[in-house]
Design brief:
The protein is built from four helices and two strands; from the N terminus they run αααβαβ. The chain has about 70 residues and is α+β, with helices and mostly antiparallel strands.
Length: about 70
Amino acid sequence: MRSDRVTKGTERAPHRSLFMAMGYHPLELERPLVGIAGSANEIVPGHFHLNQVMEAVKAGVRMAGGTPIGFS
């Protein structure tokens, strides 16, 4: 799987250690990593709720067996 490029092999140990420093569990790194783009902000009223949308998407990714990674 594409996530293996970041999480497998001795040459990727620094990558794994950074994920673990951010609080990811080693078991989470064995699942597919799924990036979730977020555009929430506090200046546009129509975007204020998007953090809640991102959290719902993350929950769905976890239920489907993946590891969600949000980014802006």
